[in-house]
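Example with several molecule types.
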Amino acid sequence: MPLLTCKQFLEELSDYLDEKSDPELRQKLEQHISDCPNCWVICDTTKKTIQVYKGMDPVPLAPEIHDRLMAALEQKMARKDLKV
Amino acid sequence: MSSSPIEIDDEGAIVAQARLGNASAFNELLRRYERKIFRLALHITQNREDAEDVLQESFLKAYEHLDQFQGQSKFYTWVVRIAVNQALMKLRKRKSDRSVSLDETIDTGEDNIGREIAAWDENPEQKYSREELNGILVSAIDGLPPIYRAVFVLRDIDGLSTEEAAEALELSVPAVKSRLLRARLQLRDKLTRYFKRKGDDAFAYM
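Resulting structure tokens for the full complex:
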């Protein structure tokens, strides 16, 4: 089983973090991380990157934006009703 | 995938009601997704006014063309598709002659990968207040090209599957995957500047 290069490891990193790699490849990737401290750091910090964004606060939607949207929609709905 | 069958059925019923002209059913769909659509529009256009326009135009279009929604995909995926097109139009208008596409040839970003290699603090979030942290996260995403921003927001923040993101963005599955990888690696690189462990600056792992 040939060893992976760092470039090959990085190409597979997303699938690995999403747990989408097939078992044979996964084993090779894990072997690579245990042998290569740089790739271990990249893997670990990419995982943390994804985690920190998952916990990000939602963008607040100002009530007036919601109200404007509702008003525009109500107008549109009223026009649609008229056509019927 | 992660949503239970009840939720899917539930949403299917709401969409069906909305298609029959039930206004409160459509309003329910709007209430569910307006924040997500606004966030996505904000990340693509990077302009609050444009994002508000995109939000409004997307839901008005969705309402107008609801009879064209096939129901094979999720309602959200369908609205995202409309919103992304609206947002790209805004970008194009602002950049006038420069075309903006999610499918343009991408810079592989090789030089952005692994430029910063340093381990992070155990709980990097604790270094900053919520507000500061949000600012850092948003400005890191906003530093990415639009093609990466959209893919990252849909996959890693909204939690769409690769297939759903591909459908919403009208990209192939491999195109979504390669953009997601580049986006994640570039964000990692940017965040390392903030989150690296003290004393790791000059520490080479080689």
